[in-house]
Design goal:
Strand 2 and strand 3 form a beta hairpin. The protein has a five-stranded mixed sheet with strand order 1-4-3-2-5. It is built from nine helices and five strands; from the N terminus they run E-H-H-H-H-H-H-H-E-E-H-E-H-E. The protein folds into two domains: about 190 residues, Alpha-lytic protease prodomain-like, CATH 1.20.1510.10; about 100 residues, Cation efflux protein, cytoplasmic domain (Alpha-Beta Plaits). The chain is an alpha+beta fold. The longest helix has 30 residues. The protein is elongated, with a radius of gyration of 27 Å. Helix 1 packs antiparallel against helix 2 and helix 2 runs antiparallel to helix 5.
Length: about 325
């Protein structure tokens, strides 16, 4: 007699609160910073301040970083197609990686320039430097504030926030350095503060870089504990085992999961799917779920056909079992 088995698929999208629309914030941030780059370059040229000119170039690079993050955000909203069945959602992860690399490169350039000025201090008209840098604190701080609310939940938005927060910190260091130099004449203090700022920014950016690389290689998002997901699914009354559990990031704000659930014969499979999907949404905020349901008989047949326990609970890669088959 043929084996009786259940073989169900679920590909379900729960309603999820729409995130804040950051498109307008990106437009405002880019406009503010383009204006500041023009002002900074002009006064850097008038004051013969290499520091201001270098920072203008640095801020121009950050304008590019904001534009990249904005483009990535727009790309995540492009519709899926037959050639890109997930759409372009991963663009936000790629943008966060590029922004982290760009920020590290800019800080390395700043550190190099600061080290050079420590060896060969140069006189600078500090008053224009102080005033323009103070304006920079306001503009960069305000731009960072635009993205602060999304920095925790979206790695791409966090990259934009980190860039602008780093710029505000650099501008603050320039102001402090200018004030002290005006009071003491210690020309070495400005590059020394710049080196300290570069070290702080690199320390803060490193986690952005490592997390974005982790997600690019389909790592489990930091906010999701895989073992907890496994325990919760196995805790459903009619689920006796699970295998091929995979969790990865579709974008910097959306998590996907696939799994095979082995259920008892004769159960209401629709009810099991409903329970599993709501569990994943409510406890782990996983909104893109694909579940395949299998009977115990079918799962055992799958294992025998594979010549090993390829579909049972003792498979190392993301597999667990509860109860007996």
């Amino acid at each position: 007699m043929p084996h009786d088995h259940a073989h169900h698929h679920s590909h379900h999208h729960h309603a999820h609160p729409a995130p804040t629309d950051f498109g307008g914030r990106f437009a405002l941030g880019i406009a503010l910073n383009v204006g500041f780059v023009v002002i900074e370059a002009f006064f850097g040229w008038r004051a013969d301040s290499l520091a201001l000119l270098a920072d203008a170039v640095h801020n121009l690079g950050d304008v590019g970083a904001l534009a990249l993050a904005w483009a990535a955000l727009a790309a995540t909203r492009l519709r899926a197609s037959d050639r890109h069945t997930f759409g372009w959602q991963r663009a936000s992860i790629l943008a966060s990686f590029v922004n982290a690399v760009l920020l590290l490169v800019l800080m390395a350039a700043l550190a190099w320039e600061a080290a050079s000025r420590l060896v060969h201090p140069q006189p600078v008209d500090e008053w224009p430097v102080l005033v323009v840098a103070a304006v920079g604190i306001g503009i960069n701080g305000a731009t960072a504030w635009l993205f602060a609310s999304g920095a925790r939940g979206d790695l791409n938005i966090r990259g934009a926030f980190m860039h602008m927060a780093a710029d505000a910190l650099v501008s603050l260091g320039v102001v402090v350095g200018a004030v002290v130099v005006l009071a003491t004449g210690w020309m070495w203090l400005d590059p020394a503060i710049s080196l300290a700022i570069a070290a702080v920014v690199v320390w803060g950016t490193w986690s952005l870089l490592t997390q974005s690389v982790h997600l690019l290689f389909d790592g489990v998002p930091q906010a999701v504990e895989l073992e907890a997901v496994r325990r919760s699914l196995l805790g459903l009354g009619d689920v006796v085992a699970l295998h091929d559990l995979h969790v990865w990031a579709l974008s910097t704000s959306k998590t996907s999961l696939t799994a095979h659930l082995v259920v008892r014969s004769g159960v209401d499979t629709e009810a099991v799917l409903h329970q599993a999907e709501h569990l994943l949404h409510d406890e782990f905020e996983i909104t893109h779920v694909t579940l395949q349901l299998e009977s115990e008989v079918f799962a055992a047949h799958c294992a025998l056909a594979a010549g090993a326990s390829a579909c049972r609970g003792d498979v190392p890669h993301g597999t667990a079992a509860a109860g007996s088959a």
